[in-house]
Amino acid sequence: MGLALLRLQGKPRRHTLSQSAMAVMLRDMATVHSSENAEARLRRIEAVTDTTLAHLGVEQLLRELLRRIREILGVDTATVLLLAKGGHHLVATASSGLEEEVRQGVRIPVGEGFAGQIAARQQPLVIDRVGPDTVRNPLLWRKGICSLAGVPLLAGGELLGVLHVGSLHPRTFGEQDLHLLELAGERVALATRTRQSRAERTAAEALQRDLLPSRLPHVTGMELASRYVPAEEAGVSGDWYDVFTLPSGWLCVAIGDVVGRGLGAATVMSRMRTATRAYALDSNDPGEVLSKLDRHIRHFEPDSMATIAYGMWEPALDRMHLSLAGHLAPVVATPDAEPAIADTPVDPPIGASSAPVPRKTSTIEVPPDSVVLFYTDGLVERRHRPIEVGLELLRETVRTESPEAVCAAVMASLIDAGATGDDIAVLAMRRQHPDELRSMHLEFPAEPESLAEIRAALRRWLPAVGASDDDLADLLVTVGEASANAIEHAYGPLGGTVEIRLEADEREVHATITDRGNWRHPRGQHRGRGTRLMRHLSDDVRIDHGAEGTSVRIRRRLTGDEVP
Amino acid sequence: MTTANVEVAAHDGEIDIVVSGEIDLSNAESVQDDIFAAITNHLVAVHIDLSKLTYIDSAGLRILFALADRLRLLQTRCRLSAPAGSPIQRVIELSGLASLVDVHLS
């Protein structure tokens, strides 16, 4: 049925108190006589074939439905109040005839007033005489409403809100009226639920897409690969993983599973990720980071719970410190031993207890060529297979291969054609062998902000090729100075890039810092110190200014562990 | 991002300035502003504590030289402390700053 037809059949009727009782009686009789017709029309009120409604949001859709209900039921106002998040308040969301209630943002506590009582009891309610003594919201009687009838909006047993209609002339809402109103309420509830869950699902999916790294970071000395497969039917659940480096050169890895589904779980997941990153900046102890995260979640997200495995790799990548909050331990495969599930103590999940719990950190030695595999329970848990069997299968599958190959093997071995009921997240990390790292090539924008990133890259690479702490400190300053010179002097306002090539053998590091600009003369006081520092802290420095740009070549002997 | 933190404690005409974090070209100017803002011309002595600093390059050294210069004009005593044997101490030693200010090894 189209809109035009509806308008023809049910012309809006406006009645004032001055109208005669006879007119009212005739009108009510007409309503009863046409009730069968009204019922049929109500059943089709939000027919999906109605293209007018297909593109509307919740508020617009409700407004249009309410306009139709008003016409079909012959009432003067029709209003929907939806239950706000938390379930303690009703908020006027849409109205036809009582628009001021929506514009004024009326909030009614559940249990209070006309709408509040309907919500609390989940029962229809009729008031024949509206006045200051019967209705709490002055808007209703100031408007001149004489009679009110309302029904709860229920979908799948869950309360969504309240629908009420009002009449500007005295009217007794009878059983037939309530029947029609309940029918209207069902349609409104259904339409609202569908619209809300569609909007929530879209938001949750967008949030999760945004949360998972679109591409894993490039970390010198560590190869990374990951897989994420959402559950097939149930919509977004709360699995997530994250890999990030710190300014200190440490590499952090987190994988977690928030209890719950949908937008709620995705929102908590995003807050957990942010909080984890924030606490990671302040501590090199995963147990401490998870303790702070636990405190954060218990206070700010009191109804949430999540498992998480959180690891922090030292800059040299030879050791990972790990803390587990109710999460499955990673699989570690080393070149010289059978792959094993890390023997790491498991503390309670985040948000599981009402008080702080002591959290442990264990340290895993990771020789070059080793693979560490993190995952969520969706990978190993199946209805038809005990988790121990899944874990054993996983352990046997992990090899010291490239992370991409490990991920592919693990997915192939643990997931068959049958549907999985849960999200699956897998993250594989492989520590590269120093032989693979003999040379490194970096390119950064020629801006001061790049200097910290350059140092972070050196802090990871140099220990991996055998540099001692002293070697590292000296090379940080020499390469840093050469880069700072390029950043400061090589380019005009358009900027450019700084290229750094590093090569190492057992005894020496060669670093070449190149720009494509044209160095200007240093300005200001206290200059020239940088070049002196570079010469003092390395074994050889050559600076070549050419037409194509400048290159600075630095040679520094590695002292290793020998006493200087 | 390079971050440094400047903490100031004043007492009896003297002032302790603790600089932690890292200093390079990207944040040298703001670190200099923070340090200079803490120093008034009524001070008798300034103590710069670099024991919590983890990186400094020539941009950072420029601050210290400029500071030493300024304090000499103000006839204010200046003392610098850095952990003995640390990379920071090594860079300061190489820069020749010790000829201008009293460098104390902690």
Tell me about this structure.
With about 575 residues, chain A is an alpha+beta fold. Chain A folds into three domains: about 5-205, GAF domain (Beta-Lactamase), CATH 3.30.450; about 215-435, 4-Layer Sandwich (Phosphatase 2c, domain 1), CATH 3.60.40; about 440-555, Heat Shock Protein 90 (2-Layer Sandwich). Chain A contains 16 helices and 22 strands. Chain A has helices at about 5-10, 20-35, 35-45, 50-55, 60-75, 100-105, 115-120, 140, 175-210, 260-280, 285-300, 385-395, 405-415, 450-465, 470-490, 530-535; strands at about 75-85, 90-95, 105-110, 125, 145-155, 160-165, 220-230, 235-245, 250-260, 305-315, 320-325, 330-335, 340, 345, 360-365, 370-375, 425-430, 440-445, 495-505, 510-515, 540-545, 550-555. Chain A has a six-stranded antiparallel sheet. In chain A, strands 8, 9, 10, 11, 14 and 15 form a six-stranded mixed sheet that branches. Chain A has a five-stranded antiparallel sheet with strand order 7-17-16-12-13, with helices on one face. The longest helix of chain A has about 35 residues, at about 175-210. With about 110 residues, chain B is α/β, with parallel strands linked by helices. Chain B has a single domain, classed as STAS domain (Transcription Regulator spoIIAA, 2-Layer Sandwich). Helices cover about 35% and strands about 35% of the residues of chain B. Chain B is built from three helices and six strands, in the order E-E-H-E-E-H-E-H-E. Chain B has helices spanning about 30-40, 60-75, 85-95; strands spanning about 5-10, 15-25, 45-50, 55, 75-80, 100-105. In chain B, strands 1, 2, 3, 4, 5 and 6 form a six-stranded mixed sheet that branches. In chain B, strand 2, helix 1 (about 30-40) and strand 3 form a beta-alpha-beta unit. The longest helix of chain B has 16 residues, at about 60-75. The termini of chain B are far apart. The model of chain B has no long low-confidence stretch (mean pLDDT about 90). At the A-B interface, helix 14, helix 15 and helix 16 of A face helix 2 and helix 3 of B. Chain A: One of its GO terms (molecular function) is phosphatase activity. Chain A: Keywords: Hydrolase. Chain A: It comes from Prauserella shujinwangii. Chain A: This is GAF domain-containing protein. Chain A: InterPro entries: Bact_Sigma-Reg, GAF, GAF-like_dom_sf, HATPase_C_sf, HATPase_dom, PPM-type-like_dom_sf, PPM-type_phosphatase-like_dom.
